[in-house]
Amino acid sequence: MAAVPHPTPHLQQHLEQSPEQRRAADIIRLLMLYRPLLDAFVIDFFTDGLWAQLPPAWQPALTNATPVQLAGLLGGRGGPGAAWPLSLLAFAAAARALAFPRGYLGGSPRPPCQSSHLHPLLRRHVKPKKQHEIQRLGKVGALPNPLRPPNSPQLPNSSPHPQLLQRLSQATGSKHVMDIGAGQVRAGGHGEGPRGSSPPELSLSPPQGHLSRFLAFGLGLSVTAVESDGRLVGLAERFDQELLRELGKTKEHKRPPMRPLTPQAPQHVAGRLDPAAPWGEFLLPPNPPGPGPAARNPLGGPGGSEDGGQVLVTGLHACGDLSPALLCHFARSPAVAAIALVGCCYMKLSTAPQPPGCPLGYPLSTSVAALPGHQLSYRAREAACHALEEYERRLRAGSPHLRAHCYRAVLESLIRAADPVKRHLGLQPGRKAHALSFPQYAHLGLLLAGLDPAGVPLDSGDVGAMLEQQHKVVAFCTLGQLLAPAVETLILLDRLLYLREQGFHCALVPLFNPRFSPRNLVLVAARTPLATVLAGLDKDSKDGDSSEDEDLGEAESPREGQS
């Protein structure tokens, strides 16, 4: 009998890797193959001849593709009459297979005007998208009703299962939550990190404390909300007092039976996060400084919180470097029992090279840092923030928004021809730019670029020829959208692997509906096993997006300052 051949060293190393490590390595190999496509800015479509850089076998099929066929390529659901080259099909299939599943896509493509799962008082000042997110992140079931018939409809504010943060609280025995909101590097430029020699300071600003208010009033948890701007603390506290006053009035009105709110407001603390400080000293003074004394550190107690118990940390769309900073604090802080984190604005992550003492936002893990080609450009990280489902919807609908990419690429060509120094300017001709004719759009854009529109020919044959290539620009954008989820998966896998290397239990959970909450993957980590916490969350995701969430008759009209 022939001897069984031994695996090669490379294969042996591959087999010894975890599934997450193998997926990260495979994503990097895919991105290296298509690095020019990933790093290209669509506004350079004409100035850099991006179409000619695509594989020649792809160009004829993409030139003749309709928006609906491109939507089928993007979503993996085919398209009428599409005949794609095998190499393009393989590229699309690999990109989709390596990206982390984004969860259930059922229900409406838009969140309801008002969520029936939230108490009416917790819906005030909160936009529909944010209602969906806080309901999914901290959803709590209604009090059981033994008299309810088996098939009767659900009552408002009711749901069959407790949700993520409540499950974490039950599993860890932690009743205190730190809610740390969206943050950014104050001194950084375009997310490339600070230019000075000192570590970055991260400003925190959940501007109106909606999640904190839900966790405190809705779930009865002890909540500390950390905010960077002392002025926003006053606004959040005003909303808290408004809710407390309204609680006293609800007894006078007849409402459907629902879980009662707890008259317990969150504590709001003004301060900035120092990512390099020890866990017990991570708060810096707010910016601008407040008139009162410096806030006490919410993790300053002997066990974590002031009462000595451990805490849960949550960050809903913690921007840029704030997400990795929170993970590092969790890893070295025994006071934190668990963390639930939703990141965003990946282009603001600090990447190498950085001045001494400045931590990197990517990569965090030694696993990813050791992989050749792991580096991600600003453009790649920016692409990871795109809303793939929304772009697919626009393709299927033939949305006029699609022409905006071509408009901006033609405008870039005109600006560079008039003044080669002016490149990649941050121009904002308006939110309705797609509804303008190109001469109207270009006139506004040239003025913003500091150029005289009268000196630029807007009706030349060259301009007309570029505008006629809108379908090619849209096709090129679609290819970039295909890679975007794989880039986001790599960034999130890096964070997960960093926590695994520290010995923690962690998982990525697609908690929100990606149709209207594109950054829907929640990184959950704890010092204890997560099996009971995560069990059934996928089913809850489908339940939470059912038709029970509908526009309610008592929906409030938008008010000034809604968030």
Radius of gyration: 25 Å
Helix content class: 25-40%
Structural class: alpha/beta
What is the CATH architecture descriptor of the largest domain?
3-Layer(aba) Sandwich
Report the span from N to C terminus.
72 Å
- Beta fraction of the residues? 5-15%
Largest sheet: 7 strands, mixed
CATH class type of the largest domain? Alpha Beta
Q: What is the β-strand count? A: 11
Helical stretch tally: 20
How many domains comprise the coordinates? 2
Mean of residue pLDDT values: 77
CATH-defined fold name of the largest domain: Rossmann fold
Broad shape: globular
**Parts with pLDDT < 50 across at least 5 consecutive residues:** 140-162, 182-201, 543-563
**Largest sheet, spatial ordering of strands:** 5-4-1-8-9-11-10
Domain Methyltransferase: 208-351
Biased composition (Low complexity): 195-207
Protein name: rRNAD protein
Region (Disordered): 139-162, 184-207, 248-307, 537-563
Textual characterization of the structure:
Residues 195-207 have a biased composition (Low complexity). The protein is of the alpha/beta class. The chain has helices at 9-16, 19-33, 35-39, 59-64, 67-75, 86-98, 128-138, 164-172, 210-218, 230-249, 322-332, 366-369, 378-383, 388-397, 403-418, 438-448, 461-467, 470-501, 531-534, 537-544, and strands spanning 176-180, 183-185, 202-204, 222-227, 267-270, 272-273, 283-284, 311-319, 336-344, 505-510, 521-526. The strands form 3 sheets. It has a 7-stranded mixed sheet with strand order 5-4-1-8-9-11-10, with helices on both faces. Strand 4, helix 10 and strand 5 form a beta-alpha-beta unit. The termini are far apart.
